[in-house]
Amino acid sequence: MAKIEKDRTRELREIGGYSLLRYLWRLLTSMRTALILLLLLGLASIPGSIIPQRTQNPFQVQDFFAANPTISPWLDRLYLFDVFGAPWFSAIYILLFISLIGCLLPRLNHYRVAIFERPTRPPQIFESSEGFFEVDGDMDRAIRWLEKNRYRIERFDGSISAEKGYLKEFGNLLFHLSLLLILIGIAMSSLFGMRGEAIVNEGERFINTPVAYDNISPGRLYSLDSMQPYRIDLDDFTAKYNPITNQALDYELKVKIRESTDAKPREGVIRVNKPLTFGASRVFLQATGYSVLVTVRDSSGVVTFQGPVPLLPQDPNLTSAGAIKVPDMDPGIGFVASFIPTIERDPVRGAFSSFPEPLDPQLLLAAWQGDLGMDEGKPQSIYRLDTSKMERIALISMKPGESFDFKVGSITFDGYLPWVNIQVIHDPGKRTALFGGFLALFGALGMLFIHRRKIWIRLRGDSQGKSLEVAGLATSGEEKLREDLVSLKEFLSARAGEGKGE
Amino acid sequence: MGFLSNDLIYSAIVVFALAFILHAIETAWSVRSGEGRNLDRSRTERVARNATGLIVLADLILLAGLITRGLSAERLPLGNMYEFSITGAFAFTTAYLVALKKFQIRWLGLFVAGGALLTLGTAITLLYVESAPLVPALKSPWLVIHVAAAIISGGIFLLANSIAAVYLILEKIERNGTRGSWAARLPSLDSLDQLTYRLIALVFPLWTFSIIAGAIWAEAAWGRYWGWDPKETWAFITWVAYAAYLHARVTAGWKGKKAAWLCLIAGSTFLFNYIYVNIWGTGKHTYSGL
After folding, report:
1. Are A45 and B225 within 8 A, CB to CB?
2. What tens digit of pLDDT does each residue of B24-48 get?
3. Can you tell me whether residue A222 is helix, strand or coil?
4. Do residues A26 and A84 touch, judged by C-beta distance below 8 A?
5. Is the Cβ–Cβ distance between A380 and A373 less than 8 Å?
6. CA B177 to CA A426: how far, in whole Å?
7. Which among A38, A49, A250 has the least Cβ separation from residue B247?
8. Which residue of A has its CA nearest to B199?
9. What is the pTM of this model?
10. Which of B97, B72, B71 shows the shortest CA–CA distance to B16?
11. What would you report as the CA-atom Rg of chain B, rounded to the nearest whole angstrom?
12. Is there a contact between B224 and A433 if contact means CB atoms under 8 Å apart?
């Protein structure tokens, strides 16, 4: 190995400029390099499945940082929290695909000619070839068998050469070209795609404009101005849960759909696996939770806040938490809210939910008074109350319909609503990728199950056309050739007169 | 129906155990009778045939267990790791029985019965869950297609890996001398190597299809066809590893030992995905776990 390396460096020193490029190109497109890159690609994906990834679960990455403060910045510098977007990961697959193209171009060019090639003259000596046998029979009959088995036949004097399996290379090329097509599809998805999420209460509507989203991440070449302004009215949402395991059984969202804001509405249903489709965009039902309807009044009875407040689920039984902020009171009032659909109490855990449906709902609030910190222009989560400049003034537990007076005002728990998290995904590359996937599959089938093989037949000089010599050659799948030779032998051995009904 | 299914699975375990014992006896006899005395091939052959009969019986009982499990949950038994395991054991033994019709691999019965016993044993003791309907995200025909293709692929991967492992053992034996009498009845190294290759060439398109079906399902359920979720990542790694195996064999001319090792590495990525990612992993496939 070391010697080869030394030779290579010498070679490198001797050649320069254009020939160096040629050398590197040949090195990159060699089979060995392709194989190493392929294995590297597999190895490089491993950290992405072991270390938490930002693209999948940013919170887990935060936890990891908190738990491993010393090594995390280093891992981060190596892009290990974003493996599949890392430059070194891209480098591997880009090199692999360049190597692939470099491999394919000459082969495509060669195949363009080779697909029309006729079988070549049989070798002089048969005896050393695969499956050599001698058999009594005549050439016409042998040709009939070869034609029936779709061999390509070429006649020479006293001998024929037949070949089959030209589509193996086609399958091979198709498989590899399809991988390129999949890559193009993935690139289109990420460049021209968009994904966004919005929490929408039952009874409200969603209009597809950038402002309607809670968060939106457009691809680099996606134009926010070209969004189709469809409108979805969320009429009715039902969630069914298994009463024993508490697992969700089914979500169903009944909607009215308008292709544009002034179009005629039509009825529709969204389920977990059944999104709505608008061209290359799909609208998914991603998660559900509860919003609480509350009314806050100041001490004189004037309404200072009213409406549904979405809370975030904390566990599978939809214990939900969030914040109600009332900046229109002076000093500001805020509530840390916790909605429990089916309340249960426990000396250790306190209040918690024992079932996701609202069988015995309660709203638990901690009322705070002071500076909400909303005037500083810093972005704030709507689900969290910054209590650093506030003072707690009351702890409240309410059933629907109940009210509570705290010193400077009152709050009424009017009821609750389910919300759904709508996820919109615009993915113009998925069809290309899928098409590529299926082509790759067909290519793989052709490449692995078609076998290129040749059969040669020659009249024995001393037999007056009554005896044949047969041999073959397989470049892959010797069994297939052997089967063919056996079948040909049987066909030839059966007497011509008896073989009428073959 | 659920109870009936459990009883059937237990019965299948018992029959697999009997088949395992018969194969063990067959192996022991041929090892002993090799020590100087003549090898009574007819006797061991008879025992081995009976063992195969028992594996067929166990396989049928297992199939009945799967069907009753499916009926009790009113869906195909492909919803959690317990069900993957029993279906996987069925796929593995069926792959062996089908291959047995074509190739001389009766000698592999000891491994197959042992493997099925281990899988079913772990399934019923550690992974068992009551049969129940599925969470919404799993309700899709693509689930059935995707998981069924993955499990059949798994069965064939395991078979190919068992053969590759036997190859490596025999290769070592042959390097240190000649094969003992037990090993003497096994096929030549060359044909083992060839058999491994043919199984993997057979299963590679199926595995590709399983990934595509999974991507279609993921697109319908989660909105993206590929998200580098740990399960997806490892499915990809397995695909890459077997692609490398095929490449290495066909174009770089790797045969024998190197190819067998590559096959084992690829197979272990599959097992890792199945065991580690299902049980300890995170991501969107976790409900496919326990």
Report:
1. no
2. 888 777 766 555 455 566 777 888 8
3. coil
4. no
5. yes
6. 64
7. A38
8. A448
9. 0.79
10. B97
11. 20
12. no
